[in-house]
Amino acid sequence: MSEPTKTDKILTGIPEFDMVLRGGLPRARLHLLEGAPGTGKTTIALQFLLKGLRDGKRGLYVTLSETETELRASAKSHGWSLDGIGIFELVPLEAQLDRQQSVLYPSEVELGETMRLITERIEAEKPDLVVIDSLSELRLLAQDQLRYRRQILALKQFLQGRQCTTLALDDLTSQTGSMELHSLMHGVVSLEQIERSYGAARRRLRIAKMRGSEYQSGWHDFAITPGNVLIFPSLIADEHKAEFEPTSVSSSLSGLDELMGGGLTRGTTTMLVGPSGVGKSSIALQYVAAAVRRGEHAAYFSFDESFETLSLRSTALGIDIEEAVRKGELGWQRANPSRLSPGQFVWQVRRQVEDQKARVVVIDSLNSYLSTMPEEKALILQMHELLTYLNNQGVVTILILAQQGIVGDIQNPVDLSFMSDTVVLLRFFEAAGQVRKAISVVKKRTGVHELAIREFRLFPDGMQIGPQLLEFQGVLTGVPSYDGSADPLLRGRSETG
């Protein structure tokens, strides 16, 4: 038989995995799927065989580590039936003494005999796809690394001669033996499970090797849910560029637009920075509501607030986000940092942009996003790639960063202003026996903006941006000094939006 071409590939049954593999696993090759127990090797292998079954391919699962009953029970927990897939069981006889067929004890059978039984079964069933679970059992039988290597090499040549595409599973019980396997395999996929100090474990995978085939390198987060393996390919922003006009986007609040120098520019990132409760989310909601009124789709990712709380607050500001969500005009997603992996979050954002055509995206807040994993440096790099992607798509991105402190000495938990094209600073300040709010634009890369510091208020029927605070000094410190003869503070509601 002729050798397969570079583009001759087999789909895995996991669409996002096929994206990482640039089209699937090369056909008629021997691939290693390695990972510690519990990382998801069996689940991925079953998806592979089930996809083949749907495509009319014969599949064979050779199990040396668990019984056929256990394998079927595992599949059933996902709602899958293994009917139509051949299962060859080579496991100990314990708890199965009433069964009539002959079941072998791997610990009592020579490696050569076991390999002979496997090859005979493959010759009899003539499968297109084969899963061998697991190589660690064969390694134990060999008791000699050289003999084990020779047997695996012979198995590889046998499978290639029959044009079988094979997934060999390995649980990494022997690190030395596992690394030596890499040189014998056409492809190597490594799975990893990271236990966090709190919350769900994080699963990820990488293609360590794929001979003669392109693939996306690096680690990719994934999750196993009932009935699905969900892989979240890491984002490469430069692969996603769209044509768009860098026009200004209005907030539908004239005072705010004036402060921003006409509005926010498409394809840019704006960071709203200030202490908790100063109005950052309210300003973000103002842009969301304006986008919905323009007929654009918007997306709001909330790490901190429930939908009920945000809905009540938005209604008080004259913004009905509940209706917008019901109509599909606004994509609202609650992001739980203790259950969410960074890769999964990025994938959720991409789905809103690519599938729902979101033109405004709000991430509330960066503080909670940074708590999704402890490797802050890697997480910031991932956020930088996400923001570059959103800018390439012409999206208006609004980030919310809560500062530590309320009045006076305010500190940033982390400096992310370098990622933003526009930075809006909000502050509490004390004046005339009241706690007031001030707003100012301190940076805008895409045009001229006001340098003024203005008062900012929230009312039951909207928000208001007041005149410049000309007669105050030190407003952004939280305790300003008054240097005028008249009260310059906001009185009316002429700018209510």
UniProtKB/TrEMBL annotation:
Any one Gene Ontology molecular-function term assigned to this protein's record: hydrolase activity
UniProt xrefs under Pfam families: ATPase (PF06745)
Ranges where the KaiC domain occurs: 8-245, 247-479
InterPro entries per record: AAA+_ATPase (IPR003593), Circadian_clock_KaiC-rel (IPR051347), KaiC (IPR030665), KaiC-like_dom (IPR014774), KaiC_dom (IPR010624), P-loop_NTPase (IPR027417)
Leading EC class: transferase
Key words of the record: Hydrolase, Kinase, Phosphoprotein, Plasmid, Repeat, Transferase
Keyword Phosphoprotein in record: yes
The EC number(s) this enzyme carries: 2.7.11.1
Keyword Transferase: yes
PROSITE patterns for this protein: KAIC (PS51146)
Protein name in the entry: non-specific serine/threonine protein kinase
